[in-house]
Amino acid sequence: RSYFLELTDGGHFDNTGAYELIRRRTKLIVLASAGQDATGGFADLANLIEKVRVDFGVHFCFDDGLQLKDLIPKPPAHKFDRPCVKRGHAIARLFYPAKGEQPKTCAWLVYLHATPITGLSADVESYRHHQPGFPHQSTSDQFFDEAQLEAYRELGYSIAKRFMSEVMRAAPNAAVPVQPLFLERTAMPDIHAMLRPELTSDMRLDPESDEPTVAHNGGSSPGTAQ
User: Fold this and answer.
1) Rounded to whole angstroms, how far apart are CA atoms 206 and 71?
2) What strands lie across the sheet with 59-62, from one edge to the other?
3) What is the bridge-based pairing of β-strands 28-33 and 105-113?
């Protein structure tokens, strides 16, 4: 028994917070990463992948078409354009090994990355124009002003909204049960099926805007991923 308790933010071991979720063999993990990563090295994610492989024998495999490389903006074709990507999410299969009475199985990890995507609002684009380091400004800055905070909040909301829109489009009327192994299935229909109780009861896709909405007291408002 220890007489001391060390409380830290986890950065010395795992900045993502997903290590313990993988230890518990969680079936669906949504990981939002907003660390400073201007070079696209994905250091925090790489640290997680290495640790869970060594400690738990869990392996990652990113889905075709939803790779990490797609989250890194490429130089634009026109010199006056700013680099951006189509989406801010990648999806990996997690392969859990057999452990005791638990059989080997698979799970999904949705990785949301702070990266400039197409279709951002005008105020965010303006902030990005005046602050070239956005969205990878130094994490030593602990005192965001209102414009900076709102730019990051709106970027995160836009990334999550685009991911949820793709989930909703994948199987809007799905009634397919989730199988223990997903080796022959694609990511979005399976994730939709896992979220189906929440999506079908509270969410719909607005046909006018392709935006997921959540019903509240007979009305609707933009939905967010939890």
Assistant:
1) 26
2) 28-33, 105-113, 89-96, 59-62
3) parallel
Q: What are the phi and psi torsion angles at 47 (to 5°)? A: -60, -40
The per-residue pLDDT for 81 is 78
What's the half-sphere exposure (Cβ side, CA atoms, 13 Å) at 40? 13
In the structure encoding, which two tokens stand for residue 103, read together? 């059989």
d(CA 173, CA 187): 16
Residues of the chain short of pLDDT 70, as ranges, are: 1-2, 5-8, 80, 170-186, 196-226
Grouping H, G, I as helix, E, B as strand and the rest as coil, residue 211 is: strand
Decide if 67 contacts 147 (C-beta within 8 A).
Answer: no
Cis peptide before 135 (omega within 30 of 0): yes
- Per-residue confidence (pLDDT) for residue 29, from 0 to 100: 94
Q: Which residues pair with 93 in a beta bridge?
A: 61, 108
pTM above threshold 0.90? no
Residue type, 110: V
* Both tokens assigned to 43: 């250091």
pLDDT at 161: 93
DSSP string, 74-101: PPPSSTTSPP-BS-SEEEEEEEEPPBTT
Q: Looking at residue 208, what is its pLDDT?
A: 47
